[in-house]
Amino acid sequence: MEDKLLEEEKKLKRLRFVVDFALMFISTQDITHDHAMNIVDGVRKQALKLFPGKEETFDIIYAPRFKRVLNEKYKRN
What we know:
The protein is mostly helical. It has helices spanning 2-28, 33-50, 55-61, 63-74.
């Protein structure tokens, strides 16, 4: 039981790192909107590899963060 919890914690920590890194990269690098969207798609795929079947959770927790950064950077609504 404890091993499963530790594994979940490790996966969650990895996902947080990937999300935070992607958000920072998108906001600080001179990349196109399409490139940024490809990064978001890659992060989503990675999240679903780590946590299969959790699309809705990703959309609730992480998608708004990406949307906010993309809107700020590319001035879209």
